[in-house]
Design goal:
The structure holds two protein chains of two kinds. By secondary structure, chain A is of the alpha/beta class. Helix content of chain A is about 35%, strand content about 25%. Chain A has a domain of about 70 residues. In chain A, a hairpin with a 2-residue loop joins strand 4 and strand 5. In chain A, helix 2 packs across helix 3, helix 2 runs parallel beside helix 4 and helix 4 runs parallel beside helix 5. Chain B is flat and about 75 Å long. The chains are: A alpha/beta, B mainly alpha.
Chain lengths: ~260, ~280
């Protein structure tokens, strides 16, 4: 069953009226992606190639100029319960405790308070935040804050997880621990995930398939299946002998290492 | 009491703790002493400075003379009543001015159209010296407390409005997107994101407003009327009673300080989540 599907999707941002030199931007062009139930697909590409645009379209926050996006077979016309979004910024609300941040989505959806609290407790426990329920976000480390953001996302029980560089602001060690947490949750609950990342090893360690995007206007130029066992164990997987050659392949596809290229 | 562990732990941690504490307490003690010394110098300077420097009592009366005049006004001149009337005007003017400024700030902050239409007038009124409206209000409403409250409202209104407006405009758009992803209604976005986001800025506006309210009330009281500290000030001035002028200035200052402190206490109670400002600690 197809969970998430992009059909010939393009997104053109029209020029801003009154601003000189503004010509409008064709961010992505003719993108088709099919993601099966339980699949984890990573998307890599040069900066500014329209990766985040694709996730915004899938979340329903933005609408495509052409083409259509389907979640569980239904065309996406706005934010919906099937998808949840997680960004590089944890977006924890500074005036709410960690528990109330985790509850935030269900509070908006008017889940009964007692049920909400019980559920939040469960997710706080799963993401090792038990002792921090009543702390405020500024009292936590970056890794813990991002774990709270993950708990808030999973609390919504989405079918499809949209992950926009969720770990790129973290230090290398914290990142690996969180990748492990995420991979295990995704595997246990058989979630479908669409992951954008700049980190090539992260893409390979976490996903079933890696899609490579061209420079703007973004198109899918390559699809690489990751035939390495143990998707639920990215810590082990990243040490697999195939990771090195596959990373090199991705680097060459992205033209990384060419002297004239500036990011 | 657990045995063993605490004893083992103490030698490791004990030495740096007292060292740091004593350094802090030395600094703190020095601050207290210097502050006390400054107060003594100030009081003594006011009491004995004017005669020493040959300043006439009708220019700067000695502190004790001001104190005596205060007692005299309290006993014979209804000073308490005037003070309470001024307090009442400050509280009502500040409250209404803040409420109106905040509501207007949120409305303009959420509607681009309203802001475009209203901004030239807001800018003009913001630049206009608000206390200059006091005589006009007296002409309209006569020698009673209404012009004082109106002047206070007018002067408090703008800093609160501008602070709230700027804060609502500066909400992190991704936080709004987060709420939209959960299918939040417009009202939910306001009460759960925009309003709490704007609270620190609102309180900054209230702090400014608290002191401005006293200025507005004082000016309007100076313009006319027979009750309130400003009227007492004008009366003392008319009678060449310099000590009486000082008495009213001191009381007006005390009202301003009280208003400011109350706002800060309210702010501490409401914004408990934030890292304490005086420490300058910023969340990592």
């Amino acid at each position: 069953m197809l969970r998430l599907s992009f059909k010939e999707v393009s997104r053109f941002f029209p020029p801003v009226r009154g601003r000189t030199g503004s010509e409008g931007v064709l961010a992505v062009e003719g993108v088709s992606i099919d993601i099966e139930d339980g699949e984890v697909v990573a998307l890599i590409g040069p900066s500014g190639c329209g990766k985040s645009t694709l996730l915004n379209l899938a979340s329903g926050l933005d609408r495509p100029s052409q083409g259509e996006i389907f979640v569980d077979g239904e065309p996406v016309s706005g934010p919906n319960e099937h998808v949840a979004f997680m960004l590089q910024k944890d977006l924890l609300l500074p005036w709410r405790t960690i528990r109330r941040n985790v509850e935030f989505g269900q509070e908006i959806r008017r889940m009964d308070a007692a049920q909400r609290e019980e559920r939040a407790q469960k997710f706080l426990h799963r993401y090792h935040l038990d002792g921090f329920a009543n702390h405020y976000p500024h009292e936590l480390s970056g890794g813990m804050r991002q774990r709270a953001a993950l708990a808030r996302t999973m609390m919504m029980d989405p079918d499809v997880l949209l992950l926009d560089e969720p770990f790129s602001a973290l230090d290398a060690q914290t990142k690996m621990v969180l990748q492990q947490d995420l991979a295990q949750t995704v595997a246990e609950e058989k979630k479908t995930a669409f992951l954008i990342t700049h980190d090539l090893v992260e893409a390979l360690a976490l996903s079933d398939r890696v899609l490579v995007m061209s420079r703007r206007p973004g198109r899918i130029i390559e699809e690489i299946p990751v035939d390495i066992p143990g998707r639920a164990e990215p810590m082990k997987r990243r040490q697999h002998e195939k990771i090195g050659p596959m990373t090199a392949r991705l680097m060459s596809l992205l033209d990384i290492g060419k002297v004239e290229q500036t990011v | 009491m657990a045995d063993g562990a605490p004893i083992a732990a103490t030698p490791d941690r004990a030495p740096p703790e007292p060292a740091r504490q004593s350094l802090a307490s030395v600094v703190q003690r020095r601050e207290v002493w210097l502050s006390a010394l400054a107060l003594v110098v100030f009081v003594a300077g006011w009491e004995w400075g004017p005669p020493l420097l040959g300043i006439a009592p009708y220019n700067i009366p000695r502190l004790s003379a001001v104190f005596e005049e205060g007692i005299h006004m309290w006993v014979n001149g209804d000073l308490l009543r005037h003070t309470l009337i001024t307090c009442f005007e400050v509280i009502v003017g500040f409250g209404l001015g803040c409420l109106m400024g905040a509501v207007m700030g949120y409305v303009l902050g959420m509607s681009r159209l309203m802001e475009v239409v209203a901004s030239p007038y807001i800018l003009a009124l913001q630049i206009a010296p608000k206390v200059a409206f006091a005589p006009l209000f007296v002409m309209w409403f006569g020698y009673n407390i209404t012009p004082r409250i109106l002047t206070a409202i007018l002067i408090v209104f703008f800093p609160v409005l501008i602070n709230v407006l700027t804060a609502v405009r500066s909400v992190d758009p991704s936080m709004i997107d987060l709420a939209r992803l959960f299918k939040a209604t417009r009202a939910q976005i306001f009460w759960k994101i925009e309003f709490p986001w704007s609270l620190p800025a609102l309180f900054s506006g209230l702090r400014i407003g608290a002191t401005l309210a006293v200025i507005g009330v004082t000016v309007a009281e100076l313009v006319g009327g027979s009750v309130g500290l400003g009227a007492e000030l004008a009366k003392a001035e008319g009678g060449a009673n310099t000590a009486g002028v000082f008495v009213t200035i001191i009381l007006l200052t005390v009202i301003g300080i009280l208003a400011y402190v109350l706002v800060i206490l309210a702010e501490r109670a409401v914004l408990r989540y934030a890292p304490q400002r005086p420490d300058g600690e910023i969340a990592a």
